[in-house]
Every structure is written in structure tokens, then in C-alpha cells.
Amino acid sequence: MEKREKSQRERLLEETAGVCVYCGHPLTVETMETDHIVPKSKGGTGDYLNKVCACGCCNAAKANLDIRGFLAGFSGRRRRHYENRLDTLVEQGRMSAEKRALLSDFQEEEPFPEKPFLGVRGTVLFCIQLC
Ligand SMILES: [Zn+2]
Description:
Blueprint: H1 8-15, E1 33-36, E2 51-54, H2 56-62, H3 67-71, H4 76-91, H5 97-104
Antiparallel strand pairs: 1-2
The structure holds zinc ion.
């Protein structure tokens, strides 16, 4: 039996255990989108390290925002779910610590915001199941 090489999309999907990295929504190779963590418009590369599996909704909401700008729109609770999801993926050996760091970009001295606040464009941007 010939062993087929996995496509990059398949690898990205496995890296996040089959869910959108940003909201946890279950995805397939057909429904997933590839998000550039550092947007191409901000100098992000097409390297595997800069790519992550996201749902269409989160990908559209993130658009040209860098990770810090995007995460600023998360409620504290959503942010904690997100960080926990990333930690779990690293613990499971799915995601590299390097990529996890790119996806977090939080500084120790900044506490998570306690109150939800609106997305940067003043609208509710997310397709949330967690919040
Ligand atoms: Zn999502």
C-alpha cells in the first residue's frame, strides 16, 4: 500500500486537533481555512510556522489584525479557554511551542481583561460557542 504524503491542510488540522484554534469550532479539511498568524499585509510569511487552522468566521474577523489586536477583542473567559487550548495542544505534542508563542503574544504583567468588551471595530465579530 502506498503511503500518501499528508497535505499541509491536513497537518494544520491535526495540529489543532481538528478545531478552529481561535474558537474551538470543529472543522474538516474541507471547511477549515488557513489563517496567517502574522498577516501577509504586515509582512507575515507563507511558512508553515505562520499558518494555523481557523474557521471562516474567525479568519474573516481576524483579517488584517495581528494576533495582539485580534486577541484584544476576546473576553477574559474566552481568552482563558483559548490559552488552555493552546497549552493542551503543546502538551499533546501537536503544536510547537514556537507556534504557540506566536499565537499568544501576551505579556506577563498584563492581566487578562476581566470584562468582555467589543471587537476593535465596535461590533461583535465572533461565531462563539464558548462565550
Ligand atoms: Zn473560529
